[in-house]
Amino acid sequence: MKRLLPVLGLLLASCGDVKNPNGMPDQPTGPATVKVLPSRPAKPDPAAAKTENAVMPSDTSLTGAWLMLDGALRGHDAQVLNQLMDPEYGLWILEKAGNTPLVTRVANVSNFRSQEQQPLFNLEKTLMTCAAPTAVTKLPTASCPAGTFPAEGCFSASATGFRALNFWPQAAIKGGTRQQGQAAQGRAMGSVLQTRTGYQYHFSKSAGAGGRWRLVFIDMRGACPK
Known about the structure:
The protein is built from six helices and eight strands. It is α/β, with parallel strands linked by helices. Strands 3-4-6-7-8-1-2-5 form an eight-stranded mixed β-sheet. α3 (62-75) runs antiparallel to α4.
């Protein structure tokens, strides 16, 4: 029986975990397990990233962009208004400085001050209570010098008329160059007119089938600019 004890001990040891010199179980000596890593998602198109902002709502209509602008002005929401600006060309404000057009490039709406040293959100006081602009083939034209329109309200149309304007030879320009301003003017695709003031809001449209409408110009010269 005494002779069987060492043999039994060896058999029991062979059935248990074998410890390495560090006291940890030895790693299995079989073939190594190959881990399959998931493929990385495609990177966004850098060109699209310049013109699209993931924070913006998905509404791609001109009316949707106008309602966002209306809400941002009434709510004094600089974050939304900054996001609504054209991300490549910025926002340009067109005013009258005496008889001279003044064009100002705005990088941050919170920093803008008009000729009367008013913030951009002062436009809230001029807004009409239109649920949405009425789409027309061409914006109404005011009779001057009275400045009266044949119809009252908010209207939207193609920005063809605004793109054809040439106020640059007499204009004073702040915050940018004439070349940049003309490029921004050329980007305008749709316009919204409010007849109470004659102010016009011009929107660009970013590239692609799902391109969003962006605010690129505000013409604050009134119904009968010179």
